[in-house]
């Protein structure tokens, strides 16, 4: 794993993985590696000891870290020393008191029909990644003030609106303006992924 070159005995690698260590994901290191803790996700660690590091979507790089907790989620990043890491409960309470949307609104939401992941949100538009499970149906409500753009990324989905039925294949898009709902049905054996962009029209 660490590699060696017997012809170059001076090029020693000082590495240590502790007995209670859990490593899972795409882990890279350069130079000596000291790990004793938990590492999950896409992590580059250098001289990291007794730490809990967990990533989901983004790369986490650590250097010369001791006794720390680093947790990255789609909504936020939490960093603390191990001794006070349980104070995260008080931080959640503070988010609630301040009325922050992160307290209740999560970027990734699991539904009976699949998964919605908020990519970007501003005053007049929102972009989401939609994953529709096989044999599942997603009903998008109509809104006369919002333009709906749908782009199929993976798979094909059956789309039904007031104009009729059509199949939206990967790479194809659909735009709708009006109060009529849009029905999306995954009739295939694999999950379908789409990008949904809703743009609210100004009055």
Task: Determine the N-to-C terminus distance.
Answer: 62 Å
Q: How many strands, which pairing sense, and closed or not: the largest β-sheet?
A: 6 strands, mixed
Mean pLDDT: 78
- The portion of residues assigned to helices is under 10%
Structural class: mainly beta
Shape category: elongated
Query: Would you tell me which CATH topology of the largest domain applies?
Result: Jelly Rolls
* Low-confidence spans: 1-16, 30-34
CATH classification class of the largest domain = Mainly Beta
Domain module count: 2
The CATH homology group name of the largest domain: Jelly Rolls
What proportion of the residues form beta strands (DSSP E)? Answer: over 45%
Question: What report would you give on this structure?
Answer:
It contains one helix and 18 strands. The strands form four sheets. Strands 2, 4, 5, 6, 7 and 8 form a six-stranded mixed β-sheet that branches. It has a six-stranded antiparallel β-sheet with strand order 9-10-11-18-13-16, with no helix packed on it. Strands 12-17-14-15 form a four-stranded antiparallel β-sheet, with no helix packed on it. With 203 residues, the chain is mainly beta. The model is unreliable at 1-16 and 30-34 (pLDDT under 50). The longest helix is centred in the middle third of the chain and has 11 residues, at 88-98. The protein folds into two domains: 16-98, no CATH class; 108-200, Sandwich (Jelly Rolls), CATH 2.60.120.10.
